[in-house]
Each structure stands twice: as structure tokens, then as C-alpha cells.
Amino acid sequence: MSLLRSETVQAIADGYGFPDLLEEVASALTADLEYRIRELTQEAAKFTRHCKRRRLTTNDISMALRLRNLEPLYGYSSTALAGRKSNVHGDRKDSQESSGNAQSETLFKRAGTSDTYYVPDEVVDLASFLKVPVPKCPPDVSFTSHWLSVEGVQPAISQNPPVAIAEAEEVEVSKTSTATKAATSKTNDTEVATEKGASTKSSTAKASASAKEKVETKPIVKHELSREQQIYYRSVTEGLLLKDQAYRAHALESLSQDPGLHQLLPYFMQFIAEKVITNLGNLDVLSTMIAFSKALLENDNLYPEPYLHEILPAVLSCIVGKSLCKNPMEDHWSLRRSASEVVTKICDKFKSYANIQSRVSKTMIGALLDPSRTLPQHYGAILTLDGLGPHVVDALIIDSLSTYGPFLTEKLNDESSSIRSDAQKVKEVLLESCGKYLQWQKNKHSATSVLPPPDTSARYAAMNELFGEQLQQYLN
Asked: What is the rounded CA–CA span in Å between residue 312 and residue 364?
């Protein structure tokens, strides 16, 4: 049976400027309104029970509205019941009171003989109100400082939370170890002198083992991952290290698109950093971790900026690392190129993160101009600087050709075939970078302007000396 009538909704709609409300619409709104009222009443009744009360108050209704993300009703309070005696069985006492007292203490009053109720206003005597002393002004806002910890120890002051010390556990452990030692000494007295030393060692080991069993180790960090997330994390981290390429592809696709990986992101970042550090000679694992990092960065639903300090050193190690594989004939060049693409994506996506581009540029140019570094390290540095854009190439690579050009020429004429092969790889990627820079310079000028030939410009002298006619394909 409905508690509301459609005429009520029509009257409310008329008050809001909708006089011609259809009967079907009014009936539907009445049913929905009754459902909402019942729902709020049930939520408010929960607050009443939790407060150990039997009378539903307007504060309970306001809390129910807040629970449903609705704005509470202002202007109504339960202060009219404050004058009553606080009694757990107040409702039973009220039921036994006379009708006159109940009528005088009710929160709402009837307006005449109609079905309209209102909240009666309290009558205040102005003369007595003026005689009440004015309350003190509240103190101004102030700030104080205290030590949260001193050398890792939290001081026992009122501002800090109390430190719970498990004294009962310590006493229990000490009693257990003492009893075990006493039993051990009694047994040793009855044994032969030749076996006394061995039995003492054995009993001591048993006592320490029993003491350790009594101690309960509690984790410092509370794990908040659900069982499904733990299964997903284990499946991804273990599956990526397998030889199954199809499984890897599916896992990387899930990492790059799944929107529900926010809580797993710090664990993934830590996993990548640890695997890179412990597998610097394993090319397969390093390549997988770089693909792992790239997939996480491609996921637009994740926010990895707070964890870049964990993953960035690992990726930079795959770019300018001295030895990334056990066999120099393995394709570590592709790994350096993929890692440079990851660093380029990080710098492009998180430009405001702690001057990341300038710090990476400084690291790369330092590795490039260091003659003690190997040629594969120079290869990775050039790729990364080229990926940071033509302005970085203009400021760092082009200006460094006068110094780096003779060094590379010397390596190209080295007696070792492996060094000549590595130098040729570096020359190719350096030529590619300089060629894109020349095209960028050419596009900057207007259509009527002609880029000056490299042999007539002092800036391109070192470039022309190193590459010669190979630059013409980028100038045409």
C-alpha cells in the first residue's frame, strides 16, 4: 500500500512551476519518491541503533542524506528534545505520559485541524537574554612544532601517538628461554664428560629455536592487494619470464590497456628495477623488462610519475650499460634503442618531473664525451639525445662533433674488426641524427631561403669532415 498520493506530487510540482503534470508522470514520481523515503528512513534507523537510541531524530536523517551524497536539510535540529531527561528507556516513559505532556514536548505541531505540521519556534525573553554573560572570544590560530622522531626513535610526548610495546610477549619469551636453559643444564650434568660439549650446543640451539617460535613477527606494511590482484601480479611477473612469446604478447597487451592496475603499479615498478639490477648480463630478461616498462607507460589509465625514480635508473642502465649480454655478438643494439625510446617517452610525457629532460641530457652527453666508455655506450647516448628533439641535438651533439669526430674516425681505422664494426654502428646512428637535424634546419627557413652548404659554414665543418657526401641525401 502506498503511503503517498499522486496529489502530493502534483502539489509539489505546481509549487515549482509545473502545473500541467500528467497523471501517469505523477504516479511514477510518487512511487520513486516513496522508495527514496523508505531508503533514507532505513539508513537513518541504522544511525539510531548505532547511537543506542530508540527515537529517530532529524540528525539521523541528515546523516543518511550525507551517506547518499545528498545535501542535508538545513534549519531542522533535534535540540527540542534536549530538555528531556536522558533515559535509555525514554520512549517507554513517553508512552506512559499523559497526552497533554506528550503534546507539549512534541517536536512538530499541527497547524489547526489540517494535516500541515510545523516546527514551533522557541520563545526567548529578550531581557533575560541580554543578562547572559558574553562568552569568551576563541583564541587565534597558532602553530607549534614538536619532534616526530629523534634519530629514528619517537619521543613519548602528548603530541605523538602512543607507542605500543609488547611487554607481555617479551616476558613470555624470556621465561621460555630461561626454562629451556635450566632443563638443558640439568640434562648436561647427568651426561658423560666427553659428550657434555656437544649436548650443550644442541640444547642451546633448541632453546634459541623455541624462543624464535614464540616471537610473532608482524609485517611493517599492511598489504592491501586483493586475492585477484595477487594472482594477476604473479601471472604477469612469472609469465613474462617464460619463453612463450604468445603469452608475453597477451600480458603486455593487458598491461598497456587494463584500467585497474593502479594498486599494482608500485609493485610492477619495483619488480622491473630489481630484475634489471640482478640480470645485467641476461639480454632476454632485460629486453622483457624494457617492454614491460613501455607497456606501463602506454597505459593512459595509470599515473606512474610518483614511481619514475625507481624505473628510470634501470632503463638508463640498459642504454649506457657497459655489458648487457654475455656474448658481444648478441643483438644488444636493439635493446639500447628500445630503452632510449622508453626514456624519450618519459621525458616527453613527464616534462615537469624534477627537470628530467635536462638531467637525462647531462647524463647522456657525459657518456658520449667520455673516451673511457665503450662504443655501444656511445651508441645508446646518441640515440637518447636524438630522441629528445632537434634542440637537444643542436645544443649537444652538433657542438660536440668537433671533439667526438676525430675520436670516432680513429676507431673506424682501428686494427680490431669488432671495434671497427661497433664504430660503424655509431657512425650510422650519428649520421641519422645529423641528417634529421639538417632537415629540421631546412624546414625552419622559408621556401625562398636556401640552407647554406655544409662546406661553407663553420658550424657544419666537423659534420662535413666526418660524413662528407653522405649528408647530401638529407639536403636535397
From this structure: 13
HSE-up of residue 443 (Cα within 13 Å, Cβ side):
8
Interval 413-432: pLDDT, tens: 999 999 999 999 999 999 99
Which amino acid is it at 126?
Answer: L
Per residue in 329-368, pLDDT tens? 889 999 999 999 999 999 999 887 878 999 999 999 999 9
Q: Which residues, at least 6 apart from 134, have a Cβ–Cβ distance to it below 8 Å?
A: none
What length is written for the chain?
A: 476
> Contact at 8 Å (CB) between 82 and 98?
no
Q: Which long-range contacts (CB under 8 A, 24 or more apart) does 400-409 make?
A: 400/365, 400/368, 400/369, 401/434, 401/462, 401/463, 401/466, 402/461, 402/462, 403/369, 404/368, 404/369, 405/462, 405/465, 405/466, 407/371, 408/466, 409/466
Q: Is the pLDDT of residue 309 over 60?
A: yes
- In the three-class reduction of DSSP (H, G, I as helix; E, B as strand; rest coil), residue 87 is classed as coil
pLDDT band at residue 113 under the 50/70/90 scheme = confident
Which segments of 90-166 does DSSP mark as H helices, in order? 90-96, 99-105, 126-131
289-304 b/e (C-beta count within 10 Å ≥ 16 → b): bbbbbbbbbebeebeb
In sequence order, what are the beta bridge partners of 153? 150
Taking the chain, what is the end-to-end CA distance rounded to the nearest angstrom? 87
Task: Round to whole Å and give the CA distance between 474 and 469.
Answer: 10
Mean pLDDT of the chain: 80
Neighbours of 399 (CB within 10 A): 13
